[in-house]
């Protein structure tokens, strides 16, 4: 706690007064434009990476940025996705993996996880990723595993009724990202070439192009 208290004081005394008007407006309600599903890893800060303000991004974080298929788990992800899409009407969903992901390393290497039974069960929702590892010799690098898992989780995401309905009405776009925290680069999946490309190569006017939305 002693590591957190100085930050609380700084926020209250210095940061909040500078953004008081923003926070007062947010007290009236929220209308985020994007739902981001990211890993719980402490090395990732979605707002810092995207340079967004409070109120812009609705965030789900868990080990491995995993999205159980609809009805497959009694977890908060299902309710949060439904609220974001059907309630808040977000226009985008980003599923973001990251380099050096411990959850994906465990999935690929399959160590003994008897002492972490809850995590072992949770990684079961990435079983399709593991099967792809077994079937594809190209998935021999952790970064490739991370990227493949993002695509698998997007397949799971599409099974959620609110997501499926919004996609069919053209009210929602889904994007696959991988964040490399070693150099600060974010890679965005290009569906046309079936590969992740550095975000700095994508112009703002092209990011909504069909080839980047899954």
Q: Could you say which structural class the secondary elements and strand pairing correspond to?
A: alpha/beta
CA gyration radius, whole angstroms? 18 Å
How much of the sequence lies in strands comes to 15-25%
CATH topology term of the largest domain? Beta-carbonic Anhydrase, Chain A
Tertiary shape: globular
Strand order of the largest sheet: 2-1-3-4-5-6
Q: Please work out how many helical segments DSSP would assign.
A: 9
- Sketch the topology as an H/E string, one letter per element: HHEHEHEHHHHHEEE
Quickly count the domains: 2
Would you report the number of β strands? 6
Quick tags:
214 residues, alpha/beta, Beta-carbonic Anhydrase, Chain A, 40% helix
């Amino acid at each position: 706690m002693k590591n957190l208290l100085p930050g609380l004081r700084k926020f209250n005394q210095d940061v909040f007064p500078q953004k008081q008007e923003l926070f007062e407006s947010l007290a009236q309600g929220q209308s985020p434009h994007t739902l981001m599903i990211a890993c719980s890893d402490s090395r990732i800060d979605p707002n810092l990476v995207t340079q967004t303000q409070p109120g812009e991004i609705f965030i789900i974080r868990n080990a491995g940025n995993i999205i159980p298929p609809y009805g497959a788990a009694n977890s908060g992800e299902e309710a949060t996705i439904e609220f974001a899409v059907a309630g808040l009407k977000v226009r985008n969903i980003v599923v973001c993996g990251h380099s050096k992901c411990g959850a994906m390393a465990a999935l690929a290497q399959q160590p003994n996880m008897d002492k972490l039974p809850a995590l072992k069960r949770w990684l079961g929702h990435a079983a399709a990723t593991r099967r792809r590892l077994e079937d594809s010799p190209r998935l021999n690098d952790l970064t490739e595993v991370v990227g493949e898992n993002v695509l698998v989780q997007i397949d799971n995401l599409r099974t959620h009724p609110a997501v499926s309905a919004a996609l069919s009405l053209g009210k929602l776009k889904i994007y696959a990202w991988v964040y490399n925290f070693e150099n600060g680069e974010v890679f965005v999946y290009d569906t046309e070439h079936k590969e992740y490309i550095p975000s700095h190569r994508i112009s703002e006017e092209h990011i909504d192009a069909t080839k980047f939305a899954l």
